[in-house]
UniProtKB/TrEMBL annotation:
Lineage of the species this protein comes from: Eukaryota, Metazoa, Chordata, Craniata, Vertebrata
Single GO MF annotation: diacylglycerol O-acyltransferase activity
Entry superkingdom: Eukaryota
A cellular component term, taken from the record's GO annotations: endoplasmic reticulum membrane
Compartments where found: Endoplasmic reticulum membrane
Name used for this protein in its record: Acyltransferase
Record-stated family: Belongs to the diacylglycerol acyltransferase family.
Record-linked PANTHER family: 2-ACYLGLYCEROL O-ACYLTRANSFERASE 2, DIACYLGLYCEROL O-ACYLTRANSFERASE
Organism: Triplophysa rosa (Cave loach)
Bilayer topology: Multi-pass membrane protein
Coiled coil segments of this chain: none
Amino acid sequence: MKIDFAPSDVPLARRFQTAAVLIWVFSFLALAPLCIVLFLFLLFTRFWLISVLYATWWFIDWDTPSRGGRKVPFLCEMRVWEYMRDYFPIKLVKTADLDPRQNYVLGFHPHGILVAGAFTNFCTEATGFSKLFPGMKSNLLMLPLWFRSPFFRDYIMSAGLVPSDKESASYLLQHKEGGNAVVIAVGGAPEALDARPGDYTVHLANKKGFIKFALEHGAHLVPTYSFGENEVFDQVENHRGTWLRYIQERLQSIMGISLPLFHARGVFQYSFGLMPYRKPINTVVGRPIKVEKKEKPTAEDLDNLHQLYMDELAQLFEEHKQNYGVLEDSHLMFQ
């Protein structure tokens, strides 16, 4: 295979962009297990006190992730995230205002491989979330598994990530003064197995948990579609019915995380690697769907709101697809 190496005269700004994305990819794929190994390793060295003191802090701080986390604005505004934004580039597109007196549940679609659009738009200020939606604070939900890793839990909380369980999201939406936007990648880990260029499938047809959650708290629903999310990585063919898909789904059911076999480019060459392609991601935040609070919603309430949400998401996709290179005959598919 011929390797297409990057030219030696790449501008310094582009090198910084690549470095920023490399840090992010490393953090997503390897930092959590590395933190666990470091924590255990220190216990058997003369620096054992570091792990003991952290374990004490961890015990005291155990409930923080489920109580709004610990977002650090300074870290969210660091220049490194602007370099990451410009690598693709990533843009946040506003179609309607969000009332800061109200709480919202933003359904993010599609999940993609590494949710690059969700992280950049809602965990950093690189695309100007707080300026586009003044008075709003965003928190992205993430699998609770990642909050069980020492050191790593504090790192992801600093970006506004909180566990994707009912307790954590409820804490944010119980604030009557409003101003909280809980962002949920509705398709979750299973949807990542379908993430490949040109695919517009979202796992939503049987996803009603976030609908029930919004009804119970009276939080308005906001459909959000991230054009280009599936374009930044290729994935080994794993269509349903293949042995690879069977193994991936079995592992996902056991571990709670999916293991897509993805690839794209490298750091110093463009032929292979785990770095994403430089392809634009445009995350379009749709119009809010007003939700009346019902502490005990009926099955009919869930079905009606769920269908309305799917209709609004499909309409959002159709209204904006031609702006972002989607073919006219391509439509959103619900799985």
